[in-house]
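Technical annex, item 7. During the second reporting period the consortium partners agreed on a shared format for inverse folding records so that results from different sites could be compared directly. Each record opens with the tokenized structure and is followed by the designed sequence. A conforming record, contributed by the partner at site C, is shown below for reference.
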């Protein structure tokens, strides 16, 4: 037999001190909560009598409404238990609340598909996989918005950290995507604001340590010998090219065509895939030498500079096809770069994104103004670039500690 009781959830109190009142159902030692649609101060609720106290201006009307809700709920439970010998607590909850609160996963997956056209392929995939990861953790899709409480989310964060060994950044990303689904449901007036459980979570950020290659390490990389035209050589050349071409991301290096390069001015002009902004800048001699190395006699304007894309027609078919080619190319490139990093004994794992860090850090070290570095990296906000300035400052502090007595 299921038991039903009204519970004021004071741990969900808002800034005014009002807490949501819930109908609590317990069956087979399992508990579910259904919102009663009421918010009260702790001083306005009598837990023993299960009534709103008389110090509330609408206590009589609210008590009559709550009594009816409890009577209806108990009636629903009695009917179900008569009809079905073994009824789950989820079915009881669903019967009591009707369509009041929707299923979280039904809404989230539909919303994910609805906004697909407004997201980059990688972002949409991240949304979908984050929702699926949460579903896998809970072990059921039969979950309603009001089932997802602060304690459920804290347990999930603990699971990601201790069991799945996810980094703080990964944990934060997964929780943020779940929070976006709640915010969208609130905007659409599907759920009330007080069901939003994320404001009470504290998500830890990573310290933000960024590895980079100094001049000597870059030279060691350039000195490595490879079979001409091999995948290893191409990966190394693309990486070094990026360092001397404003820290271009892998997706933009892959996407680089001959028509994006002005030979007379040694200048690249192309749309950056991540931001959609047109970016143009001059490149230095090392980047220019690498481009010349890959230029063929009969290169067409729309030919790619680096031979990663094998089928142009497939690449330009749609954004999803582009994303798959870039993603697989990046995985392979990073595989070769990791091996190179080990061969020159780098104290960190080498990946393509470190070319971006290496450009910024070396440029600032050589005295380039931070505004210019920010412009070359196509940062929207200079505060992003200031992270690299902090690295320079920390390196300087280490030098003082090591060499000045």
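Designed sequence (site C submission):
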């Amino acid at each position: 037999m299921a038991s039903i009781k009204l519970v004021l959830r004071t741990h969900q109190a808002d800034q005014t001190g009002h807490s949501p009142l819930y109908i609590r159902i317990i069956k087979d030692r399992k508990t579910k909560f259904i919102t009663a649609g009421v918010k009260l101060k702790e001083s306005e609720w009598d837990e023993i009598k299960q009534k709103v106290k008389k110090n509330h201006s609408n206590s009589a009307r609210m008590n009559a409404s709550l009594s009816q809700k409890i009577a209806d709920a108990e009636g629903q439970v009695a009917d179900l238990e008569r009809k079905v010998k073994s009824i789950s607590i989820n079915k009881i909850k669903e019967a009591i609340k009707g369509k009041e609160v929707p299923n979280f996963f039904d809404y989230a997956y539909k919303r994910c598909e609805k906004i697909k056209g407004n997201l980059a392929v990688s972002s949409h995939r991240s949304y979908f996989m984050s929702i699926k990861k949460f579903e896998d953790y809970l072990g059921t899709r039969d979950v309603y918005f009001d089932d997802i409480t602060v304690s459920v989310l804290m347990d999930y964060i603990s699971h990601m950290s201790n069991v799945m060994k996810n980094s703080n950044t990964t944990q934060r990303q997964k929780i943020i995507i779940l929070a976006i689904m709640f915010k969208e449901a609130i905007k659409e007036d599907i759920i009330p604001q007080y069901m939003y459980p994320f404001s009470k979570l504290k998500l830890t950020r990573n310290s933000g340590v960024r590895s980079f290659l100094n001049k000597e390490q870059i030279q060691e990389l350039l000195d490595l010998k490879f079979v001409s035209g091999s995948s290893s050589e191409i990966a190394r050349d693309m990486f070094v090219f990026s360092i001397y071409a404003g820290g271009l991301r892998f997706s933009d290096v892959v996407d680089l065509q001959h028509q994006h390069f002005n030979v007379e001015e040694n200048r690249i002009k192309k749309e950056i895939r991540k931001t959609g902004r047109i970016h143009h800048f001059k490149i230095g001699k090392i980047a220019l030498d690498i481009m010349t190395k890959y230029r063929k006699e009969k290169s067409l304007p729309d030919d790619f500079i680096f031979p990663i894309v094998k089928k142009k027609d497939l690449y330009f078919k749609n954004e999803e096809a582009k994303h798959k080619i870039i993603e697989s190319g990046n995985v392979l490139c990073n595989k070769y770069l990791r091996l190179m990093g080990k061969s020159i004994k780098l104290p960190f794992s080498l990946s393509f994104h470190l070319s971006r860090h290496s450009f910024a850090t070396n440029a600032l070290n050589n005295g380039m103004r931070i505004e210019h570095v920010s412009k070359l990296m196509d940062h929207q906000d200079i505060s992003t670039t200031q992270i690299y300035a902090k690295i320079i400052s920390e390196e300087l502090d280490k030098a003082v500690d090591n060499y000045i007595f």
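The mean pLDDT is 85. Residues 3-97 form one domain. All partners now use this format for quarterly exchanges.
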